[in-house]
């Protein structure tokens, strides 16, 4: 029997059709060997359903984080202290919309439609980073978010440029370059405040006090010593704890340069490990935020729903234009 069905698994999945019925040991071992040999998996390649699901979950959560992450910053656009700061903030928010776009596109190559992913976000079914459920009541937060939140994001995402799934890895290259600019602009905002008046320095310290611990939680739950399936499949290259430690070691000296104090009485340099020891992370708070939406979770989803509804005419216009172009090209091709 010859098959004329040249669609990828992703396309079949998107059309609601069943995929491979047997994922036997030989198939799984052959897939693992490809990964171990350093192969990059592309959308048309065979892959275990769990690999596809894990990536779809991670990439879409990542995309949602970018889009929801625009909201706390959007609140400051009209209140930024100068035209220059307003322009920089707008550019950063626009970058984040772009990141969301690449990431939804990368996730779509795995066979889930963007509309379905967005519906899961708006219904509260899908997760997004816990960090964006925290309020940002001060201008200093726009600096601290860039410095710490984008700083944590880059630490987490640079290894993702070598993720085994090609479309995600390639999207990450540009995302990391832009996040790196975001981190530096955030540090610059905090530097100006920390070197400004006593009141400005107080604002910077107060913001660091609130955002430090939630930024450490961005790396996810403690998983020291575990080699997860994600790591075996080279979706993740390092454990959450390893990346969190990398971030802490890079960030503590940056706070010292600014004369700001990390809000952790147990923070100390560990000579033996060549690394900082920290106090206990409040994991009850972390799981509480994941389960309950945190202080601003409900507001973020409400605001996102409003933005989605307000954007309906743009999506309809873009779809109508695409359809018109398609008809035009088909007519030319038929001549
Ligand atoms: N928030 O087994 P684990 C950004 C979930 S923002 C919410 O360790 P995994 C930006 C986790 O998803 C950064 N949920 O999971 C910066 C899992 O859920 P399920 C967004 C979290 O996937 C500035 C469960 O808890 N970056 O870029 O191996 C402005 C168990 O965790 C969190 C990414 O998403 C959390 N903090 O590791 C704008 C990077 N932590 O399976 C935007 C890509 C854990 O129960 N993602 N969970 O549904 C990753 O690298 C990984 O997914 C994580 C977690 C390190 C976050």
Concise synopsis of the structure shown:
With 335 residues, the chain is mostly helical.
Observed structural traits:
13 helices; mainly alpha; 335 residues; two-stranded antiparallel ribbon
Written description of the protein model:
This protein is mainly α and 335 residues long. It is 65% helix and 2% strand. The chain is built from 13 helices and two strands, in the order H-H-H-H-H-H-H-H-H-H-E-E-H-H-H. Strands 1-2 form a two-stranded antiparallel sheet. A hairpin with a 4-residue loop joins strand 1 and strand 2. Helix 3 packs antiparallel against helix 4. The chain is globular, with a radius of gyration of 22 Å. The mean pLDDT is 93. Benzoyl coenzyme A binds next to helix 3 and helix 6.
Small molecules in complex: benzoyl coenzyme A
Structural class: mainly alpha
Q: How much strand?
A: under 5%
Order of helices and strands: HHHHHHHHHHEEHHH
Terminal-residue CA separation: 35 Å
CA radius of gyration is 22 Å
Biggest β-sheet description: 2 strands, antiparallel
**Tally of DSSP β-strands:** 2
Residue windows where pLDDT falls under 50 for at least 5 positions: none
What's the helical proportion of residues? 55-70%
Shape: globular
């Amino acid at each position: 029997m010859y098959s004329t069905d040249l669609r990828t698994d992703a396309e079949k999945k998107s059309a609601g059709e069943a995929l491979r019925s047997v994922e036997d040991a030989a198939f799984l071992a052959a897939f693992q060997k490809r990964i171990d040999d350093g192969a990059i998996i592309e959308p048309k390649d065979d892959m275990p359903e769990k690999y596809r699901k894990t990536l779809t979950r991670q990439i879409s959560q990542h995309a949602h984080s970018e889009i929801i992450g625009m909201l706390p910053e959007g609140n400051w656009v009209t209140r930024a202290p100068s035209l220059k700061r307003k322009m920089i903030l707008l550019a950063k928010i626009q970058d984040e919309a772009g990141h969301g776009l690449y990431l939804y596109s990368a996730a779509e190559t795995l066979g889930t439609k963007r509309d379905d992913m967005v519906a899961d976000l708006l219904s509260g079914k899908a997760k997004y980073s816990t960090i964006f459920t925290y309020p940002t009541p001060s201008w200093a937060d726009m600096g601290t978010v860039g410095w710490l939140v984008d700083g944590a994001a880059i630490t987490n995402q640079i290894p993702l440029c070598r993720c085994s799934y090609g479309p995600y890895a390639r999207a990450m290259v540009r995302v990391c370059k832009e996040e790196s600019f975001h981190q530096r602009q955030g540090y610059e905002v905090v530097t100006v405040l920390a070197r400004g008046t006593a009141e400005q320095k107080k604002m910077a310290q107060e913001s660091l006090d609130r955002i430090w611990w939630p930024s450490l939680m961005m790396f996810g739950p403690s998983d020291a010593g575990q080699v997860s399936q994600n790591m075996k499949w080279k979706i993740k290259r390092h454990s959450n704890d390893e990346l969190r430690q990398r971030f802490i070691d890079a960030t503590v000296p940056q706070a010292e340069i600014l004369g700001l104090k990390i809000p952790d009485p147990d923070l100390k340099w560990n000579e033996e490990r060549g690394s900082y020891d920290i106090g206990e992370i409040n994991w009850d708070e972390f799981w509480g935020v994941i389960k309950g939406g945190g202080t601003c979770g409900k507001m973020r989803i409400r605001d996102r729903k409003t933005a989605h509804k307000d954007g309906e005419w743009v999506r309809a216009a873009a779809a109508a234009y695409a359809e018109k172009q398609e008809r035009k090209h088909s007519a030319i091709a038929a001549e």
